[in-house]
Amino acid sequence: AAKRRRRGLRLHLGRAFAAGATVAEVSEALSFLIMVCSVPTLTDAALEWAAAARDGVCPPPYDDAPE
After folding, report:
1. How far is CA 19 from CA 10, 22, 34, 66, in A?
2. I need a surface site. Which of 8, 43, 51, 56 has the fewest CB within 10 A?
3. Which pLDDT score is estimated for 52?
């Protein structure tokens, strides 16, 4: 996510949820992007997470993820 690599983010999201991570745990982990990389990087990660959820890779980051 910090490198803004879509493929890597999708890979890690899928693996994290397959290993039992919860939406809250992944959300907290991504929140650290604010300190390390900036708010726009976190925003990009959240939007890509929503896109990955639409593609069936993982659960959505929030209930009303954009289409």
Report:
1. 14, 9, 25, 26
2. 56
3. 95
Q: What is the pLDDT of residue 2?
A: 87
Q: pTM for this structure? A: 0.85
CA distance 26 to 43: 14
Report yes or no: 10 and 41 within 8 Å, Cβ to Cβ: no
Q: Check if the beta carbon of residue 53 is closer than 8 Å to that of residue 60.
A: yes
CA dist 34 and 58 (Å) reads 22
Task: Give the tens place of pLDDT for each residue, 11-66.
Answer: 999 999 999 999 999 999 999 988 889 899 999 999 999 999 999 999 998 876 55
